[in-house]
Amino acid sequence: MKLKNIAIRYGISTLGLIIVALGVGISIKSNLGIAPPSCPPTILNLRWTGISVGTFTWMMHLVFIASQALILGKRFQLRFLMQIPAAFVFGYMCDAAIWLFDALSNPASNYAVQVLLSLAAVVLTAIGIKLEVVGNGWILAGDKIVAVLADVLHKPFGTMKIIVDVALVVMTAVFAWFSFGLLTGNGSTVVIREGTLILAFLTGICMRFTDPLIDKLFGPLVPRDE
User: Is residue 49 exposed (0-12), middle (13-18) or buried (19+ Cβ within 10 Å)?
Assistant: First the structure.
């Protein structure tokens, strides 16, 4: 029974990772800006095109995991190492989603379409995050580092999430400026713009509506005895 429960949990969590990755792919396709956690990997990919966004994503997550170990010291638990396979799974799922949308069409240029794609990315991200929580399987380092910093600095998770997101966007903008002379990207691919704000602020609002639906659909599938 335990093996069955684990399979259910990780199955739902993996579905969540897939959906979040699709949100990353659509946000890049919108060419209107992407979510803060995906900004650094994307701008690094624009600078070093031989390394994929997904590869830079799992590299960033490994840095987050190492940071957690340094911050927590002896409080760093062995189970936190599950973030490592999660980083690889999520990274390569992002690559698959980007490849899929690249194969379908060119980046959007019509502003209305760009906004619609950004909103679609919001919905997908909201659903994917909730599925990760419901499944309670994979631990993504981007979320865990926020929780660790919030605990150590005695800040609410929401407040620390905003601080971390702002820091990631600022670092991306600085790197973009020194690499391409622009704050938004490389001139053809937009990394930071309205879409970044849309994803940063509307995802949480969207979850107020999508969370109850996900609970109804997937909640009964997840055992509550563990």
Answer: exposed
CA 193, CA 47: separation in Å to the nearest integer? 18
Angstrom CA distances, 90 to 55, 68, 105, 139, 169, stand at 10, 19, 23, 10, 20
Distance CA 182, CA 215 (A): 42
Taking the mean position of all CA atoms in its chain, how far away is CA 84? 15
pTM for the complete prediction? 0.88
Give CA–CA dist 160/156, Å, rounded.
6
What SS3 class is residue 34?
coil
Q: Cite the DSSP H helix spans in 2-156.
A: 2-30, 39-47, 53-72, 83-104, 111-135, 141-153
Euclidean distance between CA atoms 150 and 156, whole angstroms: 6
Q: What is the mean pLDDT of each run of 10 residues along the chain (226 residues)?
A: 74 92 93 94 96 97 97 91 93 94 81 94 92 84 91 90 92 97 93 94 89 85 59
